[in-house]
Design a protein that fits this description.
Largest sheet: 4 strands, mixed
Number of domains: 2
Order of helices and strands: HHHHHHEHEEEH
Number of helices: 8
Helix content: 55-70%
CATH architecture of the largest domain: Orthogonal Bundle
Number of strands: 4
CATH topology of the largest domain: Peroxidase, domain 1
Oligomer: single chain
Shape: globular
CATH superfamily of the largest domain: N-terminal domain of the delta subunit of the F1F0-ATP synthase
């Protein structure tokens, strides 16, 4: 499994690096990032599209035709539209989600930022996101872009992953620690 994962990571990094170079030379990194985000939303919203991307059963021609039709309908043209067609033609659609993640990582690094994955029990308001970014910036020493995921199972608080560091202030973790402490006492 690790070998397969690293193979996908290698493919994703190469394709994302090439796309980033093209986007940077065309001064279209932000647009490319937005278009990739739109395609990612389509992927997450459609089991059929995810099956098309992941399944080796479909021929390259079928994948190219389907991805071209989807990109055209979603008005994803230019670099990202062509990129998706090339990826489909090269039978690498299975790695598109990893390519999108890799592109974002490269773009964030190029902007001199760092990323943080934030898990919250409920959606954060704009003011809360702004305050969290400011706090993380003071810790990291540079601008931080955050990706917020809502997971009601943490009950309250936040789980923040930034680089190799994780800060877990979730109520779920605190309750688990309290439960363990009570077991040791009694």
């Amino acid at each position: 499994m690790a070998k397969s994962s690293s193979m996908i990571s290698g493919v994703a990094d190469r394709y994302a690096g090439s796309l980033f170079e093209l986007a940077a030379s065309a001064n279209a990194v932000a647009k490319t990032e937005a278009d990739l985000g739109r395609f990612e939303a389509l992927l997450k919203g459609s089991e059929d599209l995810m099956r098309l991307v992941k399944s080796p059963v479909f021929s390259a021609d079928d994948q190219v035709k389907a991805v071209a039709a989807i990109a055209d309908k979603a008005k994803i043209a230019g670099l990202v539209g062509n990129f998706l067609r090339v990826v489909a033609r090269n039978r690498r659609l299975f790695a598109v989600p990893a390519m999108i993640d890799a592109f974002r990582r490269i773009a964030v690094e190029a902007r001199g930022e760092t990323t943080a994955e934030v898990t919250s029990a409920h959606a954060l308001t704009a003011a809360q996101e702004k305050e969290l970014k400011a706090t993380l910036k003071s810790v990291a020493g540079k601008d931080v872009s955050i990706a917020v995921t809502v997971d009601a199972s943490i009950l309250g608080g936040l789980v923040v992953k930034m680089g190799s560091r994780q800060i877990d202030t979730s109520l779920k973790t605190k309750l688990a620690s309290l439960k363990l402490a009570l077991k040791e006492v009694g």
